[in-house]
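Appendix B. One record, verbatim.
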Amino acid sequence: MRKRVRARDLKVGMHVILDMPWHQHPFFRNSFVLSSEGDILRILNAGIDEVVVDMALCEVQPPAPVAAEEPEFPEHPEKVVSGQPAWNDGPLIPAELKEAIGNSRISPREKAGIVRKSCLILMERLLESPTAENIHTAKGAIYDVVDLMTSEEDLLKHLLEITSHDYYTYTHSVNVGMLSVSLCKAVFGRSSDHNMRELGAAFFLHDLGKVRIDSSYINKPGKLTDEEMRQMMNHPVYGFDILNEAHELSEECKLVVLEHHERADGSGYPAALREDKIHVYARICSIADVYDALTSGRSYKKPIAPFPALKVMKEEMLGHFQPELFEKFVRMFC
């Protein structure tokens, strides 16, 4: 027998069935037993209001089903904050990623799904525990993902198709990482003058500095005040400092982290750099960063569809970007 159960009523030991497309939830399977409180937090953080529970396979008894008169949950609930992180022990890199990378028997679409989910889990875990050791380990996994993206055209196409549009820092990091690597491939082609692996790591880690920002600002269900925004604008410098302290990434790749909020017209931060004073790698990242921000939903704004977002960037923000790079970015979606 199966029942629908509110996500907030789930307990460890329940066998849940997520009746939704695989790319709309953060797990590798649609049907599984909840093995920890971390699993429940991941369901809540994904904005899933209720799930199907298979009572015959449960190790614990589910509560009564959702009543018909139960009030609706908010469309975009705020990310759940717990006293304990969803990830504590175990490997930083999901085993599924390693298995998928070397598996030539699965289709590009299936591999893309596994790679994307693995990257989301990897970045969520890294941002929960951004030690020098974890940054180094994560960089190695990102290297492998970049190798796949630059060598398998079909895989890259499917990865861009399944980009999710919520705005948690870890999903944004993965979205911007994949979009930026794709744009680099379009801009630089097969040139050997650019270390695509190191660049990819920089793109995925571009918002690393947010780990030093008050989490109430990151998760605030509304626009930031002027003072909160001033604090938030420190995150590029914080990220650059973290990578220096960890002795990770080349100097020019660290500029991705430091300069990805600079704008060609000088309106950006932290240094109000202009045009070619901004490193080309950071200019690439800034386009992907703004696009993902526009196409992602927040509690105070709805997401903009891809092509209207590109139109906004062209008509209202073109002074922010290098035109040649923006044109190549648009062509990625044609």
